[in-house]
Specification:
single chain; 87 residues; mainly alpha
Length: 87
């Protein structure tokens, strides 16, 4: 029979619980001129097929860049460069 040890977990566990993995922002190296409403190719990466803006937890974009991204996507929508509704 195997002995049960209470409170001790093996260090060779494949699954690490309660540990946050820090992601780097994909827009970190981009300068301000690259993140604007005219850059449709970049903005399309951050909207879903139904034309909804993807959240930070999915894209990995930092909070400040997410706010800028939302602003630019909404600006592109009002100028009819991006759709309000899905494709």
């Amino acid at each position: 029979m195997k002995k049960k040890t209470k409170g001790k977990k093996s260090s060779s566990s494949l699954f690490l619980k309660n540990q946050l993995i820090k992601k780097d922002c994909p827009l970190k190296g981009k300068d301000e001129s690259e993140l604007n409403y005219k850059n449709i190719k970049l903005l399309k990466k951050y909207i879903s097929d139904s034309a909804k803006i993807l959240p930070t937890r999915i894209t990995g974009v930092s909070h400040s860049n997410q706010k800028k991204l939302n602003k630019e996507i909404k600006k592109a929508r009002t100028l009819a460069l991006l759709p309000f509704v899905g494709y």
